[in-house]
Write a structure and sequence with these properties.
Layout: E1 3-5, H1 17-33, H2 42-45, H3 50-53, H4 55-78, H5 80-99, H6 104-115, H7 120-131, H8 134-165, H9 170-189, E2 195-197, H10 203-226, H11 231-247
Antiparallel strand pairs: 1-2
Length: 248
Amino acid sequence: MTHTTTGEPARRASGATVPVLAFAGIVVAVMQTLLVPVIKDLPRLLDTSPSNATWVLTSTLLSGAVATPIMGRLGDLFGKRRMLIASLAVMVVGALVSAVTDALLPMIVGRTLQGFAMGAIPLGIGLMRDMLPRERLGSAMALMSSSIGVGGGLALPAAALVAQHADWHVLFYGAAGLGVLAIALTLLVVPESPLRAKGSFDLPGALGLSAGLVLFLLPITKGSDWGWSSPTTLGLFAAAAVVLLLWA
């Protein structure tokens, strides 16, 4: 991919840049496992059926898969730091939406917005590649990549502890607080990359990729409930193949 510079002087990455980006990755990864400790109670908490309650987790996974390539491209075009902050801001909004509701549909909307922040991972890696010297790049990228596992692992015991001793909505308020902290640290510490990709954002391509990913991942996540040989599961796999071939 061809890059150009913005013409603005680049700030040098400080020693705190990598830890802050890794912290942002951990915060984003927390969203994926935040509700695992209370998953068995979700039907009662949301006054819905067990099959409907699983959408609270599925929506986060699907939106994360869609957001990752889209936010990466937007970061190349308009600034990786800018899009990283936007991803975290969307996550904070989603956490607050989930924190104030006991209804299924608003909860799914909030969780979808939280999953959108998964685009912060490739954006953080992109910032590192643009700013760090080669000798530091390998270890920094490894740390950023490992933040997914670290965040998911830390969220499980922490969320279980909170859910056991407080109202379960506190989980979302805590997630929103972590997101605000990550935004503040990014604004203070992380410089914007001066590199920009040439070209424009391909909206039809983004919509096609999003549709193909959702059609493919949806039966993977719900296949055990629907049945792997059910018409719904097989139909969605077939539709995903058609859409992705047309997209390519």
